[in-house]
């Protein structure tokens, strides 16, 4: 097959036929996926960036409730990918899971646009006095939001991994291209977010919420058209394991059953198939590593023999479980940084609404638009990182990535600590300004420019170039071969848990 120019990693087309390397995959296929991602992120951030403002000004929720509800919804958006990835890895595959979920996503956006546009679906106002939203209006609005969350559950974990699948790891030139993939993938994501935070937020607050939500809905539909135009060029990974997640649990169960036995010093005493099995099945053999030795007990044979009824796990299966355990440990470390990230669209926006937002005498900057500085700093930093920082470090370290993935995460977390320290100092200044100006009315503008918040936004954007992109790449790279969709949900679920933790934090601070 290699002589005929087929891909070497066994990827196929939709009809499950081998694909030619020259006519499929690589950046020409990813161009369609990147186009989708830009529009989809525009739709998501068009809703998320200003949602806390809509809840307080249109549905008339109090500040704590609105922040909590936004965090809970954002948490759901980032947690549902666990189920979408499981369905893709175990049953439908990435392409078809994405296809079904994208239709649900569009349905949610259409319903949300109707919820903010049709008169009887939103609270009414007379003579400047607005009624509270009725139970049915609230139910319709939040149902629309959570339909979006369900749709995102199937699209988010599969579209990025599907993009990475377009590069053949067995082809040296394509493997080098793949090193840059996640950087430019996130670049397209940031571009969509920038349009949302600069353009859509202004439209929502000044020209109408219906138009502000309608534009990204149409954009999302256009992005799907772009995605399906590229169908003939896509490569599809063949699922070789019936239940990848089930194999991990099987290793844990076998290791627990053998917990009183000692793992052998001689690796030949552990169960493993011969090389011919992996050649015939197309699976990759993974060799033994010394970490998490207690899981090696899952590959212990009974008295040196393999029981045909309850065969032990193979070394390759055990190593897959070790990879997942390692990812869990890194995932736990990311929860606090994800809690900080969750404040960009909630607490930081509410801070901004209290400050002086005027540019000149007539124009007032929407508070959520300051989030564009996160995106702008990312858009500037990604090309600099990919084109200058990586080649410079590559010469010194001989690492294809420039620095290791864990070093990249460490730098990002350090910048995030600096950003939140600055945010603390700015909030202290804001509170002192309230006190010194004897401000008692919550609606009174504090005589302090909103641009005091800009440094924390910029630094969080730079930090995300290191830790957000680094985490997405890390979890994809470290995932077992048949679990790469599920593996990337470590990235999304960390953000989801961070939103829930932020909701808990806001609730506790409010109570005290």
Automatic annotation (TrEMBL):
<feature type="transmembrane region" description="Helical">
    <location>
        <begin position="488"/>
        <end position="509"/>
    </location>
</feature>
<dbReference type="GO" id="GO:0071916">
    <property type="term" value="F:dipeptide transmembrane transporter activity"/>
</dbReference>
<feature type="transmembrane region" description="Helical">
    <location>
        <begin position="182"/>
        <end position="203"/>
    </location>
</feature>
<feature type="transmembrane region" description="Helical">
    <location>
        <begin position="364"/>
        <end position="385"/>
    </location>
</feature>
<dbReference type="GO" id="GO:0016020">
    <property type="term" value="C:membrane"/>
</dbReference>
<dbReference type="InterPro" id="IPR044739">
    <property type="entry name" value="NRT1/PTR"/>
</dbReference>
<keyword id="KW-1133">Transmembrane helix</keyword>
<dbReference type="InterPro" id="IPR036259">
    <property type="entry name" value="MFS_trans_sf"/>
</dbReference>
<feature type="transmembrane region" description="Helical">
    <location>
        <begin position="209"/>
        <end position="230"/>
    </location>
</feature>
<feature type="transmembrane region" description="Helical">
    <location>
        <begin position="457"/>
        <end position="476"/>
    </location>
</feature>
<feature type="transmembrane region" description="Helical">
    <location>
        <begin position="406"/>
        <end position="426"/>
    </location>
</feature>
<protein>
    <recommendedName>
        <fullName>Protein NRT1/ PTR FAMILY 5.1</fullName>
    </recommendedName>
</protein>
<feature type="transmembrane region" description="Helical">
    <location>
        <begin position="95"/>
        <end position="116"/>
    </location>
</feature>
<dbReference type="GO" id="GO:0042937">
    <property type="term" value="F:tripeptide transmembrane transporter activity"/>
</dbReference>
<dbReference type="Pfam" id="PF00854">
    <property type="entry name" value="PTR2"/>
</dbReference>
<comment type="similarity">
    <text>Belongs to the major facilitator superfamily. Phosphate:H(+) symporter (TC 2.A.1.9) family.</text>
</comment>
<feature type="transmembrane region" description="Helical">
    <location>
        <begin position="323"/>
        <end position="344"/>
    </location>
</feature>
<comment type="similarity">
    <text>Belongs to the major facilitator superfamily. Proton-dependent oligopeptide transporter (POT/PTR) (TC 2.A.17) family.</text>
</comment>
<dbReference type="InterPro" id="IPR000109">
    <property type="entry name" value="POT_fam"/>
</dbReference>
<keyword id="KW-0812">Transmembrane</keyword>
<keyword id="KW-0472">Membrane</keyword>
């Amino acid at each position: 097959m290699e002589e005929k120019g087929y891909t070497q990693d066994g990827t196929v087309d939709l009809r499950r036929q081998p694909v030619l390397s020259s006519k499929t995959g690589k950046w020409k296929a990813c161009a369609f996926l990147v186009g989708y991602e830009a529009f989809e992120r525009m739709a998501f951030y068009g809703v998320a960036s200003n949602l806390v403002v809509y809840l307080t000004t249109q549905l008339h929720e109090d500040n704590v409730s609105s922040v909590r509800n936004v965090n809970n919804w954002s948490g759901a958006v980032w947690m549902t990918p666990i189920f979408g990835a499981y369905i893709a890895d175990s049953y439908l595959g990435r392409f078809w899971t994405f296809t079904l979920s994208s239709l649900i996503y569009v349905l949610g956006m259409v319903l949300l646009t109707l919820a903010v546009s049709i008169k009887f679906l939103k609270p009414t106002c007379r003579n400047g006095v607005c009624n509270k939203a009725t139970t049915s209006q609230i139910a319709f609005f939040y149902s629309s939001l959570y339909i979006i969350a369900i749709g995102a559950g199937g699209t988010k974990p599969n579209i990025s991994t599907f993009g990475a699948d377009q590069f053949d790891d067995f082809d040296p030139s394509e493997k080098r291209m793949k090193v840059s993939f996640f950087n430019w993938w996130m670049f397209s994501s940031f571009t969509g977010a920038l349009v949302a935070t600069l353009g859509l937020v202004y439209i929502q607050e000044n020209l109408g919420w219906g138009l502000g939500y309608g534009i990204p809905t149409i954009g999302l539909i256009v992005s799907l058209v772009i995605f399906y135009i590229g169908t003939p060029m896509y490569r599809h990974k063949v699922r070789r394991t019936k239940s990848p997640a089930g194999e991990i649990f099987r290793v844990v169960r076998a290791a627990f059953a053998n917990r009183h036995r000692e793992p052998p010093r001689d690796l030949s005493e552990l169960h493993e198939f011969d090389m011919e099995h992996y050649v015939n099945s197309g699976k990759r053999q993974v060799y033994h590593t010394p970490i998490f030795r207690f899981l090696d007990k899952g590959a212990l044979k009974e008295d040196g023999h393999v029981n045909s009824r309850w065969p032990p796990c193979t070394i390759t299966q055990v190593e897959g479980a070790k990879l997942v355990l390692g990812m869990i440990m890194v995932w736990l470390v990311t929860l606090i940084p994800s809690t900080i990230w969750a404040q960009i669209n909630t607490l930081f926006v509410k801070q901004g609404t209290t400050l002086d937002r005027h540019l000149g005498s007539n124009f007032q900057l929407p508070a959520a638009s300051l989030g564009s500085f996160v995106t702008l700093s990312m858009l500037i930093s990604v090309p600099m990182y990919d084109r200058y920082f990586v080649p410079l470090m590559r010469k010194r370290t001989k690492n294809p990535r420039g620095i290791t993935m864990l070093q990249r995460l460490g730098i990002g977390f350090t910048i995030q600590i600096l950003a939140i320290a600055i945010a603390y100092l700015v909030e202290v200044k804001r509170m002192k300004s309230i006190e010194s100006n004897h401000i008692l009315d919550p609606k009174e503008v504090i005589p302090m420019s909103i641009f005091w918040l800009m440094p924390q936004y910029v630094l969080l954007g730079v930090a995300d170039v290191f830790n957000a992109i680094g985490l997405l790449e890390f979890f994809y790279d470290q995932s077992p071969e048949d679990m790469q969709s599920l593996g990337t949900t470590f990235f999304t679920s960390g953000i989801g848990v961070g939103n829930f933790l932020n909701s808990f934090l806001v609730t506790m601070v409010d109570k005290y």
